[in-house]
Amino acid sequence: MKIRRMTLAVLALLTLLFVVDVRYFGGDQSSTGQPSIHFNIGPNFSDAAFEKKQTFIQSQDEFTTLAIKGQQGVIHLRSTDDDEIRVISTIGADSQDVLDRLDVRESISESELGYELTGGKSEGQSLQEAEVSFVVEVPAGMEVSVEQHFGQVKIKSFVGFLNLEASFSDVDVWGLEGTATIQNRFGVVDLRQIAGPITLHDSFSTSTIGLAAIDGGYDFDIEVTNGSLKHNAGFKVDIGENRVGARGQWGEGVHPVVIRSNFSTVTVNLDK
Amino acid sequence: MKRFLRLLRKDLQASLLPMGFLSGITLILMFFTRFKISTGGWPIEAAFASIVMPLVFLPLWLLWQSFQTLRTEWREDTVYTLLVLPVPGWQVMLAKLLAIWIEYTVLLGVTAIGTLLFFAPLVQEAMEILPSVVWALRNGLLLYLIGLALLASVVIFVQLAFVISKMVGRVQGLVAIWTLILSGWLVEKLGVLLEPLFRWMPKLPLHKLFRLDELRQGIVAEWNLAPEMGTWLGILAILVLTSYLFEHYVEVNG
């Protein structure tokens, strides 16, 4: 009986303390008011303490292909009527020491011109701590390869051949005349006013393909596995086990639209 | 040791039926979801739901089980035998905790096997974004161990609440719930009060432990252990207190 009384007394005392704590101290979670686990994803390069800009200008002349490799930043790309290739790179880092070791390297290999971030001696370490953004202007008709991870790609009024590989990135293309080959994983692809053949391979993504009504029309070859397909292009959809396939033509069916998608949502909009 | 193992076996035998039932339900749910996705009846997102659903239900079930294993002793009058056995109270409590851990492991394993069995393409695609299979297994193991620790603390709270409730004559259910709330509050306050004593402890770099830089550069996750130490000591003290009360003062007729 004694222990029973003691138990009840302790419970009553704790209840009193609990009430006092909640009533007068608001039941604060900790003495510091800070969570015990501190979580931060990536250095905040939008407020990067240190930045370095480099400008590269090349005459198109013998170059047929431009290759851009980005990471974490934003890649802006557009076509111009000039015959110059202009690339402005901005490297961001959270310390001057890291920034000093970084550069955007220009490489020339036969007819290909390339730009990517390099980090000198301690390359691996420095690259991890930095982001690079590009503003790229290329002559119309040129082939451009873009590789981007953990960032954004914004392409506007592009005329030419586009090869894009992206992961964990947002891709926005507004106006493309030419051929596009896009590989995307774990991202969002929003393509609008696309005029020409397109090949899209995506997985774990949300992709919207807005096709402009052009002469020659489109030949659709679409296969979506473990995902969904929406469209207004009038092609026939074949639903099978874990997959949705679509074949069909619009107009004369000259320009192929090939989509291979896994675990993604694909929307095809045709501006008729 | 033999006595402890006997206790453990007894608890495991008691949970064998519900464990088998839940494992079956999980696999049937996954099979059915897979079937519906295959026939186009359900969207692919249903696969995630059928994997997540058992994982969400699991902690709730184990919370109930930790209460139920003690309740059964009273309901079936086996508590008399337990108390007359030459086994210390902490071994009784630990055996029940271990049985819950095993149940958790089995149900988690069944969910993992079901996922591999019925949603292999999904796993394959997911593995493509992870640095390596070793990385996934290592982090999976770490998460599993963290799950065990969290589960242990919950079970210890429930055991105390139940034992305390058996020490009062009336409104045992209410006393159990109130004890659960109070003990949670108490250990949390203990953590706050003892925090200055443990400020010398370095922060635990979770991003290094989980090798998050292999997944994505720039992730920093650090765990300040100082406020946790008092809480953990409190939970340990609760385990000792529960065992002591169970062994010496619990009311078997409650």
Relative helix content of chain B: over 70%
Uncertain spans of chain B = none
- Global structural class of chain A: mainly beta
Along the chain, the helix and strand elements of chain B come as HHHHHHHEHEH
Rg of chain B is 21 Å
* Average of per-residue pLDDT values of chain A: 85
Helix content of chain A: 10-25%
Put simply, the count of helices of chain B is 9
Oligomer: heterodimer
The fraction of residues in strands of chain B falls at under 5%
Instruction: Give the N-terminus to C-terminus distance of chain B in angstroms.
Output: 30 Å
Spell the H/E element sequence of chain A. Answer: HEEEEHEEHEEEEEEEEEEEEE
Percent strand of chain A:
over 45%
Q: Could you say how many structural domains of chain B there are in total?
A: 2
What distinguishing features does this structure have?
heterodimer, A: 272 residues, mainly beta, 18-stranded mixed sheet, 3 helices, flat, B: 254 residues, mainly alpha, 2 domains, two-stranded antiparallel sheet, 2 strands, 78% helix, globular
Structure summary:
The complex is a heterodimer of chains A (272) and B (254). With 272 residues, chain A is mainly beta.
